[in-house]
Amino acid sequence: MHPNGYKMTLADFVKEKRKLVKLTQPELAEKAGVGLRFIRELEQGKESLRLDKVNQVLQLFGFEVGAVPAAPKFNT
Questions:
Q1: In the 8-state DSSP scheme, what is residue 9?
Q2: Cα–Cα distance, 21 to 57 (Å, whole number)
Q3: Contact in structure between 72 and 60 (CB atoms under 8 Å)
Q4: How many domains, in total, are found in the chain?
């Protein structure tokens, strides 16, 4: 959870981390080895992105996306 109580999206997370380390979108793209268009789409919340490229970007910040167990869903 984000400090102000909402769940942060991947787009918000990447944008916040990028700004924290004072990188522009072109600089982040270069450092991550992906295209500028990919960074823009990632930060805009595009839903269909290549996971390997997402992880290339996240690894710069010490993170990665992976499969995690889902919370059980109960029918009530």
A1: P
A2: 13
A3: no
A4: 1
For residue 16, count other CB atoms closer than 10 A to its CB: 13
CB-count burial class (<10 Å; 0-12, 13-18, 19+) for 53: middle
CA 67 – CA 37 distance, rounded (Å): 26
Q: For the beta carbon of residue 61, count every other beta carbon within 10 angstroms.
A: 16
Amino acid at site 15: K
pLDDT greater than 80 at residue 2: no
Q: What is the pLDDT of residues 21-75, one digit of tens each?
A: 999 999 999 999 999 999 999 999 998 898 999 999 999 999 998 887 877 877 6
Report if residue 5 sits inside a domain.
no
Q: What is the pLDDT of residue 16?
A: 95
* Domain housing 20: 10-59
